[in-house]
């Protein structure tokens, strides 16, 4: 089974006899089967060298790095194998065409709004008014004609949606507002950690396709960021990250003891990260019966399918429709 590996300890990741080994500070060695590894996520202080990178490139394994607070900082990605100049040209053409870009920007939001409302309706006795407010804002999407206006609608919807967390989560996880840099409280820390993991997961799936991760539609492309992963994350954050947060906090699998604070920054400690990531991998491996493919697919593969749908849209095969959970 292909899987991701997470490293929290200090040590060294090295190559030996064409396989991967992690050696911790005490000299304990653990093998990571090379042909069963897709991504390695490094949260600890880990040494690597060029010999290791050559092996990772040979097997197409991505190495993701996270900072002290658990937030994504960068990725080593082997040279792209799936490349198509035609696809990238068509993707860029959709960005340059105002109407085509607006269609995709709205589509990503429609997918995300569907999943936000899906989450809130599970607590309809507490969230009915908030649902109505979000529905009213969503109706404005077809009226706006510029990307900044679309982003404005998204911002108001997201603000209302996050306020609902105060009535559907345990009281100790209440918060005043969404704060990112830095997270000001445990719930913001959870959201930021989960979103960071979401962006990395989507980026990994984009790399398996012919899409260019820097050409986006809702979020403005810019230097030093893979903004297409931000676009697609609008669909998947409420479907994956937010449901995991609700499950972990309401079932008290994660409590306030799983957070630390340093210089005004609140973040998950190692125990809290491990609990979140265990649930994360479990969720990504969960399967649903796909209505079109007529077979079971995992949540992780649903992300890849979204990428494939975009490619078909760009080259004129099929008009893109965002994922809207039916199960």
From TrEMBL:
<keyword id="KW-0255">Endonuclease</keyword>
<dbReference type="Pfam" id="PF01867">
    <property type="entry name" value="Cas_Cas1"/>
</dbReference>
<keyword id="KW-0238">DNA-binding</keyword>
<dbReference type="InterPro" id="IPR019858">
    <property type="entry name" value="CRISPR-assoc_Cas1_HMARI/TNEAP"/>
</dbReference>
<dbReference type="GO" id="GO:0003677">
    <property type="term" value="F:DNA binding"/>
</dbReference>
<feature type="binding site">
    <location>
        <position position="219"/>
    </location>
    <ligand>
        <name>Mn(2+)</name>
    </ligand>
</feature>
<dbReference type="GO" id="GO:0004520">
    <property type="term" value="F:DNA endonuclease activity"/>
</dbReference>
<comment type="similarity">
    <text>Belongs to the CRISPR-associated endonuclease Cas1 family.</text>
</comment>
<keyword id="KW-0464">Manganese</keyword>
<dbReference type="GO" id="GO:0016787">
    <property type="term" value="F:hydrolase activity"/>
</dbReference>
<dbReference type="InterPro" id="IPR042206">
    <property type="entry name" value="CRISPR-assoc_Cas1_C"/>
</dbReference>
<dbReference type="GO" id="GO:0051607">
    <property type="term" value="P:defense response to virus"/>
</dbReference>
<feature type="binding site">
    <location>
        <position position="234"/>
    </location>
    <ligand>
        <name>Mn(2+)</name>
    </ligand>
</feature>
<keyword id="KW-0175">Coiled coil</keyword>
<keyword id="KW-0479">Metal-binding</keyword>
<protein>
    <recommendedName>
        <fullName>CRISPR-associated endonuclease Cas1</fullName>
        <ecNumber>3.1.-.-</ecNumber>
    </recommendedName>
</protein>
<comment type="subunit">
    <text>Homodimer, forms a heterotetramer with a Cas2 homodimer.</text>
</comment>
<keyword id="KW-0051">Antiviral defense</keyword>
<feature type="coiled-coil region">
    <location>
        <begin position="117"/>
        <end position="144"/>
    </location>
</feature>
<feature type="binding site">
    <location>
        <position position="154"/>
    </location>
    <ligand>
        <name>Mn(2+)</name>
    </ligand>
</feature>
<dbReference type="GO" id="GO:0043571">
    <property type="term" value="P:maintenance of CRISPR repeat elements"/>
</dbReference>
<dbReference type="InterPro" id="IPR042211">
    <property type="entry name" value="CRISPR-assoc_Cas1_N"/>
</dbReference>
<keyword id="KW-0540">Nuclease</keyword>
<comment type="function">
    <text>CRISPR (clustered regularly interspaced short palindromic repeat), is an adaptive immune system that provides protection against mobile genetic elements (viruses, transposable elements and conjugative plasmids). CRISPR clusters contain spacers, sequences complementary to antecedent mobile elements, and target invading nucleic acids. CRISPR clusters are transcribed and processed into CRISPR RNA (crRNA). Acts as a dsDNA endonuclease. Involved in the integration of spacer DNA into the CRISPR cassette.</text>
</comment>
<keyword id="KW-0460">Magnesium</keyword>
<dbReference type="InterPro" id="IPR002729">
    <property type="entry name" value="CRISPR-assoc_Cas1"/>
</dbReference>
<keyword id="KW-0378">Hydrolase</keyword>
<dbReference type="GO" id="GO:0046872">
    <property type="term" value="F:metal ion binding"/>
</dbReference>
